[in-house]
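ligand=UFG
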Amino acid sequence: MKILVTGGTGYIGSHTCVELLNKGFEVVVFDNLYNSKIEVVDKIESITGKKIAFYKADMLDKESMRPVFEDHTFDAVIHFAGLKAVGESVEKPLLYYQNNITGTLNLCELMSEYGCKRIIFSSSATVYGEPEEIPVTENCPKGACSNPYGWTKSMLEQILSDIQNSDHEWSVVLLRYFNPIGAHESGLLGESPNGIPNNLMPYIMQVAVGKLPELGVFGDDYDTPDGTGVRDYIHVVDLAKGHVNAVEKVTSTNEVNVYNLGTGNGYSVLDIVKAFEKANDLTIPYSIKPRRAGDLASYYANPKKAKEELGWEAQYDLERMCQDSWRFAKKNLS
Ligand code: NAD
Ligand code: UFG
């Protein structure tokens, strides 16, 4: 089977390419390299010993994507390409709505034109807003997102569902990720955001390599066991494997299906700091700061539906997530 991976040189996309190639899929990638580097293609190929076809294309320039569809016939598309920085989306909502929504509309038009109507979409747990129940199940209604980035995910879920509803040749799998961290065990693939990171693990890694003096812990007065925010951290390789399982689903049904991809375990900010220190024999200096606007106290998945229907469940524990993150940081960030 041949799979198009949009945004395939990015953090989650690159790990998914590796898992797809390991399972014998043919992989074609396009990316505009806005938030990733072309070297990732060589790294994917050196890890797997297999080739991928790479195209530099921008979803906002529909004609730049056309050669991808002219040259290949796809069994499914896994759609990662998009902008993802929450804070930036508040400052530049037009950029986010334009890139993520117009870009995806362009992609879907081409998919329709070339007769590939199966899409797995990178959504986010953020679409639940303030969820009705914790752990969060897929039955929780979607809620109000606290930023434009989140709204692009929520709106795109609706848009893809409407497309499928209008044309039952479409098959749509919406994957709602919780908090991906970790890196490939080779230390070749991982996440290295530009500038000062917003997310917890990239920030910890910058402190660990000595680029930032200390971690600010955003609030210690939440209603959680130690007062700091609780999240569902999932190893990016587990997340990538979830997409491989979702390919079987998207190619065997003509529906809209939605799955949480998380571990079901909630860990606090201080749990993560301690686990990182223990796994890597390091000290992470931190100080308590005020709460960050828009943060929820506790947020973790009920991943049962993905286990039952996709036959997928996360395997890697927190220690492994911390070790793999650090291996990547040492090789790439210092
Ligand atoms: P990433 O930034 O590493 O990867 C996204 C890739 O898309 C980048 O390589 C970027 O260059 C590319 N891209 C962006 N706009 C493009 C365009 N117009 N045309 C072509 N390529 C374009 O991000 P990631 O962490 O790998 O996330 C992948 C997807 O998963 C995104 O859609 C993101 O919103 C979603 N997601 C991520 C998280 C997370 O915490 N990392 C959580 C939930 C959902
Ligand atoms: N945190 C700190 N200090 C930091 C960064 C984060 O204490 O420097 C805390 C936050 O307050 C929160 C936890 O660490 O309690 C996790 O924060 P992240 O920013 O790493 O992740 P979020 O859960 O806020 O959001 C992430 C993605 C969103 C996505 C959401 C759900 O950034 O895009 O997970 O998938 F929508």
